[in-house]
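Example 5.3 — Sulfatase
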Amino acid sequence: MFATPRYLAPLLLFATLIGGKSISTAEAADDTKPKQPNILFIMADDHAYQAISAYPGALNQTPNIDRLAKEGMRFDHCYVTNSICGPARAVILTGKYSHLNGFIDNRSKFDGSQLTYPKLLQKAGYQTAVVGKWHLVSDPTGFDFWSVLRGQGPYYNPQMLTSDGPKKFQGYTTDIITDIALDWLKEKRDPNKPFLLVYQHKAPHRNWMPSPKYLNKYDDVEFPEPDTMWDDYSNRASGAKNQDMTIAKTMTPNDLKLNNVRGLSPQQKEAWDAAYGPKNKAFEEANLTGQDLVRWKYQRYIKDYLRCIDSVDENVGRMLDYLDDEGLTDNTLVIYTSDQGFYLGEHGWFDKRWMYEQSFRTPLLVRWPGHVKPGTVSDALVMNLDFPETMLAAAGVKIPTEMQGLSLLPILEGDGKAPQDWRPELYYHYYEFPGAHSVPRHYGVFDGRYKLINYYQLGEWELFDLKQDPNEMNSVYGKPDYAEVQAKMHQKLDELRAKYKDDTPKQTAKK
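Solution (predicted structure tokens):
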């Protein structure tokens, strides 16, 4: 029997005290390593930055979501690679542009065999779960637990797809998604392991059906119309005029709650009819036409949209309160974002898809105590392409070379300031045409001031100077005063297409 070296005696004594299990010197050294954070990734669907009160000029109040800005960082220039639901989710999972991950539009099917950040976190010891909207057709991979909506999913009484088969729930979908997520946190996860919870809401996606508790909120409020609501689409490429996404012409009676609503329980239907019946009767009696009718449609749309966000904000509060109550806040990285931006009447539109600012830009709020200074704001040009790399870096996991984004940790830990070698421009590519809303395919480059867009199927270009024209009402493409800027932006666009290995489409418009 060998004598115990003096330097190991304290370790063996400690092992005896905790139950006789011996630990190695290497294991003891591991205790000095930074503890892997839990990660809560929250994504709403079509949540415009204009509808988060942490952002200047917002239409509404979102006190729970705002907590993340007050206790963390607000990004004012976060953009997407492709402004549409499914593709945005595929980009975030893979850290690769749509042309490389294979999910270019909402008619695609996600290849779940690809390398994704949840798979890498699993290998690093994380328990992983996804709850809520998935919208990628194939079953989730890389998750220990999943409970997701079928397709878009309804606002009421959803069916959730799980590894054990479909399960039907009664109630309001935003609340149910949170119930399932909290149940996983409380009852199903291993508290001795770090977790990744991907918590994704359907709301506020079209057709904007509020929760029973918010059906009458804003009835006595008239929201201001956006400055560009009566846009005539002159001085731009032809696509802006030929789209099909206006409040005036595209919204349906179903969008506007003028039809009988299906899929509600008797109790839900009673509350719904009590709220919308009198309002619809008053609308019919008013017999509105012309701009008065469009104004009514805008008010109906924006109130229902914001009512849906009220439920999202309430449920984000439930999640944040749980972290507080369980002592998890200090070691949890929380990210709040949307799959893209959304039009709230700007240019007379709803929906997304364009490289114009309201759909190209998305909200991003990040809280990580001890790493992110509370109340900071970043102007750095960042993208949803960067989200997976950020989560991997926070967990101490090596970022694969095939991922095309950048970790945001230097910005998060640097008071919002971008490093010297940060990207100076962003690249964008939208593919879904022909398709819903008739937005033409286009790609482009943005450097924080100038935005060059190629509508390659139309053979048309746009160039915007957002300093002089923040509402993007007048393209200066081909203007002599912008000839030098235009040439530089063309060069940058060519460089980014090569950098990101995007050789689609083969046909391009003449410069």
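Remark. The longest helix spans residues 290-325.
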